[in-house]
Amino acid sequence: MAEKVIVIGSGFGGLGAAVRLAAKGYDVEIYEKRDKPGGRGYVYEMDGFKFDGGPTVITAPFMFDDLFALAGRKREDYVKFVPLDPFYRIFNSAGRPFDYNGNADFIHDQIAQVSPGDVEGYKRFIGTTKAIFEKGFVELADKPFLGIVEMLRVVPDLLRLQSQKTVYDYASSFIQDDFLRRVFSFHPLLVGGNPFDTTSIYAMIHYLEREWGVHYAIGGTGAIVDALVKLFEELGGKIHLNSSVAEILVKKRRTSGIRLADGREVKADHVISNADVAWTYMNLIPSAVRGLRNSDFRYQKLTRYSMSLFVIYFGTKRRYTDSKLAHHNIILGDRYEGLLDDIFHKKKLSEDFSLYLHMPTLTDPSTAPEGHEGFYVLSPVPHMDAGIDWTKQAKPYRDAIMNFLEANYLPDLQENIVAEHYIDPLHFQNTLNSYKGSAFSVEPILTQSAWFRPHNRSEDIDNLYFVGAGTHPGAGLPGVLSSAKIADDLISKS
């Protein structure tokens, strides 16, 4: 009889692990709290619009290809990826655009238009990121760090690659122009990190994007979720929606399965949690069976968490194809370090903001009714430790963002909106069970990376595993899919 694996949560980490193990013949079941699969990749459907709730930047597409190949399938038979050019359009505070793609000559020209003297510096910068990428992603991203020896083994490499520097400091050592420093250091924000705190290991994202490009899934990111669910069920897997887990059952350092909120118990040989790591330990596992490393004290007092997000999904009854916007847009405000300091350290909601604006209908009109445009706009905000009353603050913050977009990028926006929905830190805390309402779980600083990050296999429970943003290697689609491979390898070898 095949060994039974239960996966808690159907985000990309959970789906990736479930597909991998089902392809190997394990009996796998997913238990999902919400009415749809996807976790942060949840899809909001309203008035003919499809809004992706979560990740929209698809890098390292081969990692999805690998999941389907394990089952003898081809990813393109389930979901279609198209490359984007530019990867991002980045605007300075005056609205001047900078297009970033994978063409070196094009990038050099873009840099020369802003600061000719920084072209050579950028060449040196991108050249050094290759070594960081080869060590941080190729060698280490899908390898577990379960013991201190494994960590000590890579310390010389981390020092050689200047991992003690932050991403901003690292980029600034090559680039002098203030705007370009922002252009080449914002990437940690895509995985929940402050560029002024995040280890320079994350500078590898630039090289990763250059290597495989930035893609979009026709139908939206939700189409990838649907494809993986279909593949999982074809392999004999079962997914249970509206099934909230109340407890991971533990006896003598092993889990025997889970207890659902309705009282039912489901037995298993292995349990994988794709739920938030901190939330899992503090809410699903009795403190009596946890050591100091996974104590409430560690997660409440010693761990730093990513920022949260305020996201507005909106659809308009007119197209904006004549705007200056691209598919992915980064709109930077006047302040950079000061704003990030407010968000990550001072924990206060500033009157100014920087934005990520996603306009998928430029690439895929099918995600909106004919003649309509779909968007989401995202603003990083402090997590729940800020004490902001979002029941009162959400509406004025929404209005400030929409007024800004209307005045600068989308004329007559608000009179053309026909569908709208927003999420805030309360959503991350209460709906997604993310501790403190953080959007990306544990913050990716050096002292919370690799061995220092919550481990992929529990130190307290021998057959409990973790995937997703809060465990090694971290947030972002390549990160959570790597965590799925780690869990698969650990279970297969157990």
Kindly describe this structure.
By secondary structure, the protein is of the alpha/beta class. Among the domains are: 197 residues, FAD/NAD(P)-binding domain; 107 residues, Guanine Nucleotide Dissociation Inhibitor, domain 1. 35% of the residues lie in helices and 19% in strands. It is built from 16 helices and 19 strands. A seven-stranded mixed β-sheet has the order 7-6-15-16-17-14-18. Helix 1 runs parallel beside helix 9. It is globular and about 65 Å long.
Task: Itemize the secondary structure elements and their pairings.
Layout: E1 4-8, H1 12-23, E2 27-31, E3 43-46, E4 49-52, H2 62-70, E5 81-83, E6 88-91, E7 97-100, H3 104-114, H4 119-139, H5 148-160, H6 167-172, H7 178-183, H8 204-212, E8 215-217, H9 221-234, E9 238-240, E10 245-251, E11 254-260, E12 265-267, E13 270-273, H10 277-284, H11 296-302, E14 308-316, E15 328-331, H12 337-346, E16 355-358, E17 373-381, H13 390-408, H14 413-416, E18 417-423, H15 425-430, E19 464-466, H16 477-492
Parallel strand pairs: 1-2, 1-13, 2-9, 6-15, 13-19
Antiparallel strand pairs: 3-4, 5-8, 6-7, 10-11, 11-12, 14-17, 14-18, 15-16, 16-17
Helix pairs in contact: 1-9, 1-16, 4-8
